[in-house]
């Protein structure tokens, strides 16, 4: 019975006819997992085989808990960048301390994710707005590209910041290592052109559309194999920097030792990696689920990603998340269920057992080219233009996050972005939109006098407040109210239309008391219309309602009838909306 | 011409018959300025005469720029506490370095205030909600009282935190210095009883009400003079700790030397002092202006307080702000114009020239009693109960700020309070209120189905969203929308009523696109009603409107007519509100 609950739903519902599609998808995405795993492990400052280890058990763990049908979990470029950025201040890249720290970082972020899943904190993904995510990913992509330039060009270039590094790359370009550069740039060009033209060319040659598209996705593996062949046949091992010895065999599972100091130092980076890995995976899984008409369970995703990272930690230490490119490949290849992910993972077993020697001859410049082309695909220029056009503040948040990542690194960049988007939220709510409204002739509707031809009365002023009333905007409301009264000096009855006011906090309530008192001394009565139920409930707990010089009306129209003509429809008694 | 613009308005409009009232008020509030100035300087860890200096030129500077008619600016208990808390980590209290730092702190906060005034940043006061201010002031009052217990009881008590200090006070109580304790406690009891009963008693004895009330306010000065008399006649100088030598003469104005490191260390405390001084002064001035039917200019207040602090810095270094107690006295005594403040300041001149010897014999325990009684008046229990009842989150913000000040000090406490109130704002906006609504039979009004007897249609679902749509709440909206569709499976037409939606950001827009697409595949059309003008303007810049499966309606009623009966009033074309 209990065991039955642990077995994932998709296994119980599995239909035999899905198997063929899942196997095809597994093969194709497995072919992408190998080069990406090697490349992203290297990007994270870890031995390349850790990338293969991270593509084995974690994928099975995700399939056990996760809820997305075809998302491909595994090494991801941005997380690898965040790993090296979090760990390089703590230990020399590649040192045993570095690897221990990487294992701990991955474990912690896995534990965070799993715990967030258990506590059903999927809503935490709402901390990040799309523009902030886009700006962050674009900035990370730029950092990744600059970071790989020395490897692809065969130049020496150090530097704390991306701009210094870029400067050194350009400065040392004349000393570039020609074979490295030739291999790297050729790979990059082949990758880009194959992605752009290969599918169309194959399609025109009569290849079915889907196969034509998938063939472009197989290019990374093909190029890796070609490069290995070239190195082998032309004995280029001494001319190029190659991956070097990859231990053969399956990963040995080890739990890291407890180190309180290290854990403390890694808490924040692990949390950020967990959050970003989750948000990125969720947006990938969501767009997939939407296209397939499936429902996604954010808390299930957390559990899946948590389990994947915990198992990735004990099998080597590279943080994993959903990968945009592999998920696209997996879905295109027809993956129906998480079994595709499991089968792709199982593909790693023969590779780890029998093919590690093969990959040891892979030149690093080829991996750098793969990383650069993948990172270039993460840029989102269109998103920026789109955001900028639709909402200037979104565009600014995106640009600032991008610049923050480039100038101050990934952690400061993301903090800046989150801070900025919340500051915008607060800033907007502190400048509420307030409209003087009048009645559309012949109807019961009240509309903004600036946008519509409406009827107004000289001694009756209707103000619609388009925001909840809080400590941070009540002064602005009061200022506007007084300036409108100055512009309408004949006003004797002021009606506040509160149809958009969902809350009035204590500070705002006090000020309303004061406004009511001030207006009384100026012989102006204060009324309210269209007060929402929850607001009225709360107001009736205060003394404002009994001290109010005016009345509460169900609607602006009823208020006008009552105040102009003394008519008082029975409905006026019924005030809550 | 230019000079004319500098002369404050109140001088130009001054009317001769005001002079009598202003002079009376000046005399009464000047009598309060002396003991408070001495006490608050001592509280700030500065020589007592600095408090008198801070009551001279700063008051004149405020009257030149400020806009409040009767607010009494000068030393204030809470600012003195913040001064000692900011400076004691930097220098030994009372040392020359401490005094230099105090001058710099006051100067910086003055410059901040003045600059905020020049840039018209009066709206910054909205950073602080009333509950946070109340919690902060109450916490500061508790710290002040505990800090003065050793002085009033004549016990030794050290301790980093208030609770440790309180514990030591209680522990060392048996060693208390009896004469000190007797003087101090007698002063405190006389102050409290005179405030509670003196006005009523005098009033019953036939004294006019106003004079009876003012007499209680003169008690601090009277008690100071009595204590000095007792010390003098009974030769208690050696038995009690007294104020000691006060230099005679007017303040010598000195500009502090430039010290970059010191300035850097003081920037944050100075900013907090400036902000809190401003917010407190503004709320005092506002409640006064409201009672008098005057308009207050927040930016003018900033300039006035800035000028007051800059001049206070160069005449000794005690931060100044509006004082609640003195303002009340000043207003009660009939102050009509800022001249009352100027005259009260001028009263300091003879005191500084001829009476400093007199005050040198004042026992410190008397000043401690004055501080304690003043601080006790700052507690706001009623405000707490009130906040707690009206809005639980306000009550929590107040309690947390109070506890934060007590446990972690004034700066952490205020940061906690501000952070908490903004977090609440964000938290609320991320859980939007959404109501399923139906039409009130026989009307055009749509109301919450849970609160009203309304008509609904099985294939038509009306949802009213009561919050602007942002990245942090769009998921919650989507979840609710899908769960309502599950509960109303017959729905073919979904109408979102956006009467409360003032903005839709880019993230929310993308998700709406997705929702529209998802619903299309489920054969449900998505409509919108009561879309506000600014929202519609912005939406028409995106592609949502053209992709929308449904339509935009002026009102929910029109939507129902059109969708149920195919009726399509001409007004439906007119969509902006």
UniProtKB/TrEMBL annotation, chains A, B:
What InterPro entries does its record include?
A: SLC26A/SulP_dom, SLC26A/SulP_fam, STAS_dom, STAS_dom_sf
Q: Membrane-spanning regions, if any?
A: 21-43, 49-66, 73-92, 98-119, 131-153, 173-193, 214-234, 262-282, 333-355, 362-384, 396-423
Q: Does the keyword Membrane apply?
A: yes
Keywords of this entry: Membrane, Transmembrane, Transmembrane helix
One matching Pfam family is: STAS
Span of domain STAS: 450-574
How does the entry describe its membrane topology? Multi-pass membrane protein
Q: Which Gene3D superfamilies match?
A: STAS domain (3.30.750.24)
User: Where located?
Assistant: Membrane
- What is the name attached to this protein's record? SulP family inorganic anion transporter
Q: Which organism is it from?
A: Microbulbifer celer
């Amino acid at each position: 019975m209990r065991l039955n609950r642990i077995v994932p739903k998709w296994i119980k519902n599995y239909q035999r006819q899905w198997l063929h599609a899942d196997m095809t998808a597994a093969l194709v995405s497995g072919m992408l997992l190998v080069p990406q795993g090697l490349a992203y492990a290297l990007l994270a400052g870890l031995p390349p085989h850790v990338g293969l280890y991270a593509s084995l058990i974690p994928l099975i763990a995700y399939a056990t808990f996760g809820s997305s049908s075809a998302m491909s979990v595994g090494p991801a470029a941005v997380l690898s960048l965040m790993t090296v950025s979090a760990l390089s201040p703590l230990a020399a890249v590649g040192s045993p301390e570095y690897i221990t720290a990487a294992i701990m970082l991955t474990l912690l972020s896995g534990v965070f994710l799993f715990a967030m899943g258990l506590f059903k904190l999927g809503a935490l993904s709402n901390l990040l707005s799309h523009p902030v995510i886009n700006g962050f990913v674009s900035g990370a992509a730029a950092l990744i590209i600059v970071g790989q330039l020395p490897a692809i060009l065969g130049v020496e270039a150090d530097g704390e910041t991306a701009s210094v590094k870029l400067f050194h790359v350009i400065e040392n370009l004349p000393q570039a290592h020609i074979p490295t550069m030739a291999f790297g740039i050729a790979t990059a060009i082949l990758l880009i052109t194959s992605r752009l033209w290969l599918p169309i060319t194959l399609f025109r040659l009569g290849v079915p559309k889907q196969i034509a598209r998938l063939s472009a996705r197989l290019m990374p593996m093909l190029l890796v194999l070609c490069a290995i062949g070239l190195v082998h046949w032309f004995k280029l091992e001494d001319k190029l920097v190659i991956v070097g010895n990859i231990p053969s065999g399956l990963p040995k599972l080890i739990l890291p030792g407890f180190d309180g100091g290290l854990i403390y130092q890694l808490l924040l980076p692990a949390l950020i990696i967990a959050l970003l890995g989750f948000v990125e995976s969720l947006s990938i899984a969501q767009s997939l689920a939407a296209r397939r008409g499936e429902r996604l369970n954010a808390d299930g995703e957390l559990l899946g990603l948590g389990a994947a990272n915990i198992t990735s930690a004990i099998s080597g230490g590279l943080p994993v998340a959903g990968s945009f490119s592999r998920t696209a490949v997996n879905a295109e290849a027809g993956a129906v269920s998480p079994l595709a992910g499991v089968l792709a993972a199982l593909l790693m077993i023969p590779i780890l057992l029998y093919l590690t020697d093969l990959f040891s001859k892979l030149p690093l410049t080829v991996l750098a080219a793969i990383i650069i082309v993948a990172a270039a695909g993460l840029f989102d220029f269109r998103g920026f233009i789109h955001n900028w056009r639709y909402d200037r503040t979104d565009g600014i948040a995106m640009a600032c996050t991008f610049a923050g990542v480039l100038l101050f690194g990934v952690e400061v960049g993301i903090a800046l972005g989150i801070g900025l988007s919340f500051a915008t939220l607060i800033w907007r709510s502190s400048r509420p939109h307030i409209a003087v409204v009048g009645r559309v002739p012949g109807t019961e509707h009240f509309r903004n006098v600036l946008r519509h031809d409406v009827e107004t009365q000289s001694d009756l002023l209707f103000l619609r407040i388009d925001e909840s009333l809080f400590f941070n905007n009540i002064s602005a409301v009061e200022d506007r109210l007084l300036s409108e009264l100055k512009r309408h000096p004949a006003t004797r009855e002021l009606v506040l239309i509160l149809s958009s006011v969902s809350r009035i906090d204590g500070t705002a309530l006090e000020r309303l008391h004061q406004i009511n008192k001030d207006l009384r001394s100026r012989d102006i009565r204060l009324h309210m219309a269209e007060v929402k139920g929850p607001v009225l409930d709360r107001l009736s707990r205060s003394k404002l309602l009994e001290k109010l010089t005016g009345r509460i009306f169900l609607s602006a129209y009823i208020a006008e009838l009552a105040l102009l003509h003394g008519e008082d429809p029975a409905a006026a008694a019924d005030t809550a909306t």
